[in-house]
## 1
Amino acid sequence: MPQASKALGKKFEVWLELLLLGLGKERVLRNVEIHKDRFTYRQADLIYEQANKGRIETVIVEAKYVSGACLHYYLRKGPLKKIGAPTLINNVVDEVLERKSFVGADHAVLVTNKHFDSRTLSSTDSSSIIFIDREMLMNNYAKMLERSGIRNHISLEQSIAMIDLQRQNMCKNIIYIPRCPARHNTILYAYSNA
């Protein structure tokens, strides 16, 4: 991935963090490593908690910044073998589902600044992933601006490009979870900016 695209991807993650905070989400973390032990971990672009019917739910977010027309189903780098994963992962949907299972999250969100290709969208029936595309992002962005009393709407790309990475905490947040939690979907947080 070229440096410019990588920087835009990081800016997109920061933008999403700010959006989630602006929409009232709490305990939002970006650039997270979730560890079960020293060598068995997964990376999540964002993770946050939300209350639902008296229960705290964990949500992981996979952010995919795309410079082309759409986010493609198959992984750009080809199939991946993750430590602790039973099979090879060759598409973005399976990657997010595997990460959700590893973490024990209640929900997984796959978000892009563009659109999803037809193969990715056809997988929505059988998967438990929330898909957020450009239109949904823009609707949430408008809600956040309205809540904040801001009337100056700029494009999604302009608002992402305006993020100054030098002013952001770009350190990793590390979370350690037990291999066999007493109750599934319980994450023990031990934050560390390393």
## 2
Amino acid sequence: MPPRCPIRYVGGAAQLVPPRQALPIWAAKAIRFWAGETALRVWRAARVLRRLARFGSDVSLDYQHFYSGPSLMLAAAALGTGAVLANTSLDRNFQNWYQADVRTSARRLRKIAKEFGNGTS
């Protein structure tokens, strides 16, 4: 019979909580008593190797997703757009537009908001 897993409720949905990977103290003592200290060290080394393998697999999947076709296409599009804007007169035009229109509008809005913040005396 498999070990029973406790149930945790997250957002109204029940989820099974997996059993812990750590060896309970009583089990470690039993292994040490019946099989000796070497068996306990082997079990601990195997646990470390399992964790390293899982970490390596996670890192590998992360790189596979990061360097996938769609994400590289988006990065290339962003870099290409930035290169075009930086090396043409569009950069100067955008800067002038921002300084003249957007920044001026923000200053006006800031003055209006400041008057509301001052209140009446």
